[in-house]
Batch of 2 targets.
Target 1
Amino acid sequence: MNNLSCSCGQQNPQGTDLCGGCGKPLVASENQQVLNMRYEGAARRSQTYNKTIVDQIWNFFSSVKVGIWIIVILLLASSLGTILPQEMYIPPAVNPAEYYQDQYGFLGQVYYELGFHNLYQSWWYLLLMAALTVSLIIASVDRFFPLYRSLKHQRVHKHINFMKKQRLVSETQLDKTANTEKWLNSLKGKKYNVRTDGTSILAEKGRFARWGPYVNHIGLIIFLIGGMLRFFPGMFVDHHLWVREGDTEVIPGTNGEYYLENHQFIVELYDENDELFQTAIDRAGGVVVKTYQTNVTLYQRNDDGPVGSQRDLQEVDSYQIRVNDPFKFDGFGLYQVDYKLHELNKMMFTVENDETGEMIGEFTVDLFYPEQQYDLPNDYYVKLQDYLPDYYLNNDGIPSTKSRIPDNPAFIFEVNSPNQEKKEVSFLTIGRNFDPTNENVYSIRLSDLETKHVSALIVRKDYTLPILVIGGFIFMIGLVQGSYWTHRRIWIQEENGKVMMAGHTNKNWYAFKREMAEVAKEAELEQPVDRTEDK
Amino acid sequence: MVELSSNLLLAAFFIYIFATIAFSITIYYENSKSVNKTKRWGWISFGLACAGFLAQLGYFVTRWIAAGHAPVSNMFEYTTFLGLTIIFAFLILYLIYKKPVLGIFSMPVGIVIIAYASVFPSEVTPLIPALQTYWLHIHVITTAIGQGILGVGFIAGLIYLIRVVDQSKRSKQTFWLEAVIYSVTCAVAIAITVGVFSLNNYSVTFNWINEWEMEAQLEYELPAIVGPYEGELITADQNRFGPLLETPSWMNGVESPRKLNTFFWSILSGSILYLLLRFILRRRIAAAIQPILKNVSPQLFDEVSYRSIIIGFPVFTLGGLIFAMIWAQIAWTRFWGWDPKEVWALITFLFYAAYLHLRLSRGWHGEKSAWLLVIGFGIIMFNLLFINLVIAGLHSYA
C-alpha cells in the first residue's frame, strides 16, 4: 500500500488523518472546522484493512459502537434475571418447573421455559461476557499502539493548519520581538513540561492520563479471565458441611486429609430490654440475632499408620467460626452459613404392660445409628422392624421417608416377651402410638428425647481469587488514572510577527480554557477563543 | 446521645433550607449583574451549606457513637446519608466551578432525599451477624459517596435540560422533563404527608403472614390504601380507614405492603401537589424555572455533569463493586452471587460505562448526555427503593 507523504517530508501509513510529523491535516481532515484529535489522527489497523475475514472480525470488535452495544445488551440481560428470583434463591427442595408456575403463574412458566431462572449461567450470557472480553482486548490494542507512538514521537513545531484548526486558538500580532522567556515561564507556572524547537513551544502535562483507559481495560481483561478459570476443575472448591455438636466429620474437598470437630454451636440474641435497640427489636418481633458461632477443632489425618487402621487424627488448630470471620487453613476457608437448632438425636422409650401397669423396661434409640434389637430386663427385648427418619405417606399411601434426617421419625417396633408366643407390633410416630391389631398387651411410650444443634459450614477454596484481586486492582488504578488526571497540551509558535497559540485537552474543556486564559494573560498574548462556541 | 443526634439532623435540615434561599438570592444578584453582591451572597450561601453539612456530619458522628456502628445500616440511615453525600459532592463541585445555580438545585435534592428518609423507621437498629464488620462502613460509605457524586451529575444534567429544552411547544422532551419534576414532587409530598400523620400519631395495624411465612403484625403510619396480602385489621383498629386494595402476593420484600402503601400515598399526594403547582404557575414547571437559568451556559453545565460522573464513577465502582465483592467473599463465602442488589449495582456500573464510551467515542454531548444522566440516577433510585419493595434479597435490611 502506498504511503501518504506530507509536505514536511514525513511518510505516513495509509489511514492517517494528521501527519505524524507536523500534524498537517491530510486528505480526509482537510475540510474539518475543528480537527478530530482522537488518537492523534494516527492510522489504526481497523480503519486501514478490510480484506480478509480476520480483518473483518478485528474491525467488528475494535469498534466502540459494537462495544457499547455489548454493554447495553449485557445490562438489559442482567436486569431480566432480577424480575423473578434465580433458581439458587428458591427453596432447595422444590421442583423449579412447578415452583415458578405455582408462585408466578404464566409469567413464571415462561420465565422457566426460557431458562431465565438460570440466566447468569446460560450459554448466551457467558457468550456475551466472552464477547465483551474480546472487544476489550481488540479495541484496546487497535488504539493503544498508534496513540502511544504518536505521542512519543510528536514534534514541537506544527503545521500552521494544525494550529489554526484546534478548538482553542489565540492569535497575537507582535509589535516587538518575541518574548519566548515570558511564555515559557507562564507555562511552567502552571506545571507544564515544556519543549522548545527554535521559537516554537510545546507544553504538555498529564500525558499519563491517556493510558488510563488501556490500563483499566487490561485490569478488566485479567478479571474476566480469572472469572473464567473457575470452570477448570481444581481451581474452585465449594462444599456444604453439616456438623452436629460433639461430632467429628471429614471435611469434604480435602481428600480425607482434614477432619472437623464441632464442640458447640452458639446462637446469641440481642437483649430484648436493651434500651438503645428496644424499638427496633420490638418491631422485629423481639428476636434479633447477635451471633452465630461454631467452636471447632481441626484435625489432620496421620498417614503413617497401616491402611485400614483406626484413623489417627492429630489436632491442628481450634477456632471460633462466626459470620464474617471464617476459619482459614491450608488455602481452605470454613464459613458459618446456616444452622439447625434442637435437631432430634436420641429418643428414649418405655415398655409397659397395659393390663398390669407393670413397667417392663427402658431403651434408647440413637436416631442416626439405630440398633436392630434392644434388650430389656427379664428376657424381654424389642426389635426395630423398620425406621423412617423423616416419615410421610407417599402418593400410594405407603409410609416412606423423605430423607435420612430425623425430622419426623417413625418406628415399627416388635415387642418380644418371654411369657407370650405372639410378637406384638407397634407403630410409633411423634405424638402417636398406633396398635395395628388393637390386641397389644405391651405398649411403648416415648419418655424422653435428646436434641443437638447442627451447624452448617461452607468449605471454600478458590485459586482464582489472586487473579481477580490483581485484575480488580489494576482496573481501579487505570480508572483513577484516566478519570482524575487530564492530558493538556498548549502549542505556541511565531511566524512573520504573528504568534499563534493553540490548546488541546482530552476532557474538561471549560476548566482548560480557564487555565489557558490565565497562561495567555501572563504571557501577554491574546485570550484564546473556543471555536466550537456559537458566535 | 440519640436525641442530640436527631436534633442535629433536624438543624441540618433547616440550615439546608436557608442555604437554598441564600443561593436563590445569589442567583437574583447574578442575574441583575451586581458583581459584589453576587460574590458576597455566594460566600454566605456556601457558608450556610457548609454549616448544614457540618451539622449533619455531627448527626452522623453522634449517632455512630450512640449505636456503636456507623449509621448506614438501615434504609433511614442510608437514605439520610445519601442526602449528605449529595451535599458533599455539591460542595466539591461548587469549589471547582463556583456556580450558585448548582446550589439552588443540589440543596433541594439533598433536602428532599433527607425528608424522604423519614418514610422509613428511624430507630437505631442492632446489627445482624452479617453486618458486624468494618466492611459495612467501608463498603456502604464509599458506595453512598459515589452515588452522591453521580447524583450531582444528574442535577447538573437536569439544569442543562431545563435550560435548553424548548418550552414554547409540547414535545417528548417537555413531557419527560415534567415527569422528572413530578417524581421530585412525589418525594416532597410523601415526606410532608408522613410528617402530618406522624404528628397526629396515626397508626393502623394488620395481622399478616410476613415475607418469611410467619404470622406477624404490621404497623402502618399512614391510612391503609393497600393492605397486606390476606391481612386483617387488628381488633382495636377495626373502625380505621381501609384497606381498599390488597398487596399482590409476589411482592416479597421486607414489609412490602407498608412500602407499597407509602408508594401509593406518594403518588396521590405528589399528584395533588404537582397539579396545585401547575394550577398556580399556569404553565409547565420546567417552563417556570427556565427564566431563572437564562444566564446559565449550557456548555458549562454539560461539563459539570460529565465531570461529576468521572469523579463519581471510580468511587462508586470501588465501593459498590470492589469493596462489595471483598465483603461478600468474607461474609457470604463468594464475591458474587447474583443477588438482585448486586446485579443492579452491576447494571449501574455498565450504564455509566456505556455513558462514558458514548460520550468519548460517539460524541454524545449536551442533551443526549444529560438525558442519560437522568436515566442513570433513575437506576440508582430504583435500586435503592424498588428492589427492596419486591424482593427479599440478601440486602433487605429495612
Target 2
Amino acid sequence: MKALLGRLTIPHRLLLANTLASSTALLVAGATLATLDERQSRADLIARRGTEADMIALHTGSALLFDDPASARTTLAVLKVKRNVENACIYTRTGRLFAEYVSSGAGCAPTPAFEGGPEHRRVGNRLLVARPIVVQDDRLGVVIIESNLDELAAHGRRILWSGLLVSIMAFAIGLAVSWRYQRSVSRPLLDLTRTAQDVSQRRDYDVRAPGPAPGEIGILVNSFNEMLAQIQERDHELIAAKSDLEGRVAERTQELARELGVRREAEDEVRRLNTALNSQLEEVTALNQEIESFSYSVSHDLRAPLRHVSGFVDLLRERAGDSLDDTSRRYLRVIAGGASQMGCLIDDLLAFSRMSRVELAQAEVPLPDLVEEVRQEAERGNGERPIEWLVHPLPRVRGDRAMLRVVFVNLLSNAVKYSKPVPAPRIEVGWTPGHNGQLTVFVRDNGVGFDMKYAGKLFGVFQRLHRAEDFEGTGIGLATVRRIVTRHGGSVWAESEVGRGSTFYVTLARTEGA
Amino acid sequence: MGLRRAVLVAALVWTTATRTGQAAEQPGVSEQEVKAAYLFHFTRFVEWPARAGADDAEFVVAVLGASQFGEMVERTLAGKTAQDRPLSVRRISQPGEAARAGILFVGSLEARRMPEILEAVQGRSVLTVSDAPGFAEQGGIIGFRVVDKRVRFDVNVEQASRAGLKISSEMLKLARIVRTRPGP
C-alpha cells in the first residue's frame, strides 16, 4: 500500500486525499442521517398507529356502549387502506373480544395483550399499539392495532438507495470539482518539477518555471526562479573565473618550464663539476697515499744514517773529548742535539703516518677516565707551577681508545705548554651536545693564544705559529689530532685571540644511551 | 317422567339465559336492564339546550306507566350524573308531570294514549323514549327494538331537532333513522 502511494503522482495524491476525505464525510453524514431517520420514522410510525387507534377508539365508544359490534367492525374496516396493518381488535372492559378486523395473519387473540392504557410494544416484526376506548371518563374497552414493520424496512431501503444515489452523485461532482481544483495546485508543482529536471539534466539555467501560481506554490515557483537566476549569474562568474584561471595556469606552466630548463642546466653543471671533483679527489687520494708511503719510507730510511751520526758523535766525544777545546766540544753538542731533534721528528712522522694506516677499534670510551689520566701526565711535565684545572663531568664516546688518548694528550699538553708564560694558568675541559648523536668536547686555556688569520694553517703538518725557541715541538701534533678526529667521523677547529687564550673543539660520536 | 320434564325445563331456562346473555354485555343481564342502561347512555350522546331545566338541581328521567321498569331504571341510574347534574328518576302516571324532565320513558302499555303523551311534551326539550313498536314513527324520538336478540333503537331526527336536542352522530350511526308517519 505504501509503495503504491509512493508511486502516485501529486494530482492523484491530491485527488485521493480529497476523495477519501469527502467519502468519509459522506459516509459519516449518511450514517448519522440514516440513523436519525430510522429513529424518526419508527417514532412516526408509532405516532401514526397511535393516531389511527385514537380515531378508532373515538368512534367505537358508542358501539361498545350500545353493544353494536357490526358498527365497530365498520369503523375498524377503514384500516384496510393501511396495507401494513395486519389486524385490529377491540376488547370490552372485561377483556372479551368485541370486534376485529383481520387483513392477514392469525387474527385477534381471544384476550387483549394490554391492560388498557395508551401504549405500544414491539414483538418481533410486529408493532402493537393500544388505545383505551373512553366515553366521558368511562373506560369501556381497548383497541389494539397490530402492524408489521414492512414500511419501516421499505423506508430504510428507500433511504439507503437514495443515499447511495446521492452519495454517488456527490462523489462524482466532488471528484470533478476536486480534479479542477487540484490542477490549480498540482500544475504549478508539475511545471516546477519539469523545470527542475530540465535544469538538472541539461544544465540549462536559462529556463524558468511558468507562473504565476496561487499562494505558497507561487512563492515556491518565484523562489525557484530567483534561485535559477542566481545560479545562472554565479555560473557566468564561474566561467569567467575559470577562463582567467586557465590563462594564469598556462602562464605559470610556461614559467615553470622555463625554470625547469634552467634548473636542469644547473644540475647538469653540478653533475659535471662533481665528476670533475671526484676525479680530482681520486687523484688527491692517490697522491696522498703516495706521499704517505713516501714519507714513511723516508722516515724509516732516515733513521739508519741518523743513528750513525749520533753514535759516532758519542764515540768521538769519548775518544777525543778531553783533547778537544771548548768550541769543538760545543760543536759536538750541537751535532748531537740536532741528531736527537731529527730522531724526534722522524718518530713523530712515523706515528703520524701510522695513524692513517692502522685499523680503528670501535669501543665505548669513558672520557672522564681518559681525560684524568692524560691530565695527570700533562701535570707531571709542567713542573711546580700550579695550574687551575676545571674539568666538567664528561660522557662516554664511541671510538678507538688509544687514538683518542693521542688526541687529548696533544690538546692538553698544548694547553699546558702555551699557558706557561701566564701568571695564573687556567685550563677548562667540557662538552656540549650536538646533532645526530654527536657531541663537542672543548679544551680552553688562558694562554698566549694565536692570531685567527693563521687558523687555517694550525692543523697542517710542520706548521708552527711560534718559534721553536719559545715553545718546543715538532709541528705534527695538531695534524695528528685532525687526522684521528677525521677518521672518527668528526671535525676539529679552534678559536683564539692573541694574549687571551685558545679554545679547541672536537666533535665525537656519542655512545647510545650515554 | 318427572325427571324428564325437569331436564327439559332446565334446558329451556339455560337456553333463555344464554340468549339473553348474548343480547347484553354480560350473561344474565336482562333486556330491561340493557334498556335502563341505554337510557343512561343516551345522556352521553344527546345535547340538551342549556335553558332546559337549567335552574333545576337534578337531571330528571321520568318513567311513565312502567312501574317495574321504573324500579330497574332507578337502580341502574342511582348515583350517576348527566349533563353535570345528578340523575333523578321519577315514576309518573300523568304525561303533564314530564314537562321538566330531560328524558321521558313511556312504557309500551301506554301506546293507546301516545298522541296525548307526545302532545304533553310538545315544544319542550324532552327526549322521549319508548319500547312501544313504531314509537319513533308516531312522533316519539327514540324507539327501542329488539333485532337479532340485541336491543337496537330507531331515532326520529326530525322530532329530536324539533325538541331542540342534538344527537351525536356516534349514536346516530348505530340507530335506524325514521321519519314521522301520519297516524291512522
